[in-house]
Amino acid sequence: MGCGPSSGRQNPSTELKKSQSRTGAASSSSSSGGHKNINNNNSTNNNNNNSTSSGAKKTSSSSNKHHSTKKSKRSNSKKHRSPSPQPQLTIKSAILIQKWYRRCEARLEARRRATWQIFTALEYAGEQDQLKLYDFFADVIRAMAEENGKTGGDNGRNSPLMSALSHYAKPSLMDSEGETVKKMLEDTSPGNVDVDRNYKGPVLSLPLDKPQVAKMIEAFKVNKVLHPKYVLMILHEARKIFKSMPSVSRISTSISNQITICGDLHGKFDDLCIILYKNGYPSVDNPYIFNGDFVDRGGQSIEVLCVLFALVIVDPMSIYLNRGNHEDHIMNLRYGFIKELSTKYKDLSTPITRLLEDVFSWLPIATIVDKDIFVVHGGISDQTEVSKLDKIPRHRFQSVLRPPVNKGMDSAEKENQAVSVDEWKQMLDIMWSDPKQNKGCWPNVFRGGGSYFGADITASFLEKHGFRLLVRSHECKFEGYEFSHNNTCLTVFSASNYYETGSNRGAYVKFIGKSKQPHFVQYMASKTHRKSTLRERLGVVEESAVKELKEKLSSFHTELQKEFENVDLEKSGNLPILKWSECVERITGLNLPWIALAPKVATLSDDGKFVNYKEDRKIAQVGGTHAQEKDIVESLYRHKSTLETLFRFMDKDNSGQVSMKEFIDACEVLGKYTKRPLQTDYIAQIAESIDFNKDGFIDLNELLEAFRLVDRPLLR
């Protein structure tokens, strides 16, 4: 970026050697080199003396020898004079180059941090939307129930969306051995599925062993899909093991004298392969803890899950899995896992999804290593207690996002709830919380769930329970790991290239010996970073972040333009960067370094002091190119992920299609959620334009393709 010397410039030490080699007739940068040159001169003089004759020539030779001695003395005296000023200039040049280098590094670091802020702000805004949406669902269903009690009617219960949501409106009340569970286990039995002759993927049989797991891994490396029969078989066997385990696992390293802890994988199968290659397969001598968030975001979530579950089946005492906030069906609807299952398994994805909901609910929620290290996915709060975690009926929380008590319940109804509010908060905190440098404990408003906890909360928790260290995951870190709270809280994140190729390293930590000294191993699954410079990798990541941010701004186009015009009293079409930044943060709710980002996301004046807000050409469009209502279109575009989540709620058979009625129903619910009612007639027009093949159904792929940014379409 022009913030340092060119790549062809020599380093300071090379320049120093070159400069010193030029000073004097035969001088050198080292004392040994100087002696070598003197010996060479003496040798030359001796050869000349030996070649001379006697007599006059002898006298001449003696004279020459005397003259040569004087010359040599003068030469030596020159060498002992004060050094030439050129080395001093070279040192100054080296210092200048060093300053340029440090300045360039600082600028790159500033760009990296700004890019990181964009990715995290957009990620957490999505999670916040998801939590708000689920709260909205609970309120809608509660209102329906109250209205039904008054009128005796169904009041919308026949609505496709409301029918789908009713299953997720409250915690699971079913007993682990109840009739509902038995029927689910029968319906998802591997015996119900036949393996066709054309199947060429890995074949599994019980009992599972390491050679079968190794073959399965090799098949996944070449993108082969495991047959649904074997997926169901793995899930059923894993469920038996998880069901027999306590909510908080306890591990002893007295035999292994070591333990390896891995963080989020998020469907990054390549990262899992790197871990197993570098650190070996789990065994009694090489135990593992995988700390949640195995699925979502990445494209091979089911492969990661099958390998981890298969390793648990082979040797349950050598690998322990903690539940993360993404081992949750509601999260899977939004962040890609359900979509992945539907794509790979079509109609058979339904029994797999149903069984996964139950299996996730049986995963342990924390692990304690030698009464010394507490391992949990998210973190803690000032209310977290291990004794309470031990007693939580975790299987009743098929979704941790599901509050156990609805508003308006009387005391008798609250007492009859399957789980208490305190238990739910304990679960929410350990899966959703994040550490902060500030003291105290307060709600995690950035994510929308869990708590922020300071160093004092960590110290109090560790002291109360006799632990030395808290290990958690949940947050992407640039280096793959990070210590905080005076080295008492360690974050480990194992998914490399999380936001974009080259965005971050993955890492795992290995605690070795009785003192459990941490040893970190970092990696990056993609080989691209080895062929490009840091600046080039940062450029690619930065470009991706800016692109996402521009899309976000475009979804607020109308609101931003109104805000700019209200602030621009002179109606000049230009705003000072500071005022522009304040407007953008106020409308989008994103706390970002907008002043630094302005040149990348807006059009600046020639002097770089003003933003020409009327030059913003990109705006949202849904469906065809007919005249579109800006407010409605931008609202749909802004909440397209939420709309997709609504569709996946309604798509009970995972067919990937919804009817026109279901689309309109979802848009109406979205209008209530955003508190911006959408006109039914206009929504119907959009639905027709999205239905590209005119079959009366909207394919989810058609829906996602319909959302795009265009250059100023016809608006009214």
Automatic annotation (TrEMBL):
Compositional bias per record (Low complexity), positions renumbered to this chain: 23-63
Pfam families documented for this protein: EF-hand_7, Metallophos, PPP5
Catalytic activity: O-phospho-L-threonyl-[protein] + H2O = L-threonyl-[protein] + phosphate; O-phospho-L-seryl-[protein] + H2O = L-seryl-[protein] + phosphate
GO biological process terms on file: detection of stimulus involved in sensory perception
Record region (Disordered): 1-90
UniProt xrefs under SUPFAM superfamilies: EF-hand, Metallo-dependent phosphatases
EC number(s) from the headed UniProt entry: 3.1.3.16
Residue ranges of every copy of the EF-hand domain listed in the record: 638-673, 678-713
Basic residues bias: start-end ranges: 64-82
Needed cofactors: Mn(2+)
SMART domains from the UniProt entry: EFh (SM00054), PP2Ac (SM00156)
Keywords assigned: Calcium, Hydrolase, Manganese, Metal-binding, Repeat
GO molecular function: calcium ion binding; iron ion binding; manganese ion binding; protein serine/threonine phosphatase activity
The family this protein is said to belong to: Belongs to the PPP phosphatase family.
Protein name: Serine/threonine-protein phosphatase with EF-hands
Organism: Caenorhabditis briggsae
Lineage, uppermost ranks: Eukaryota, Metazoa, Ecdysozoa, Nematoda, Chromadorea
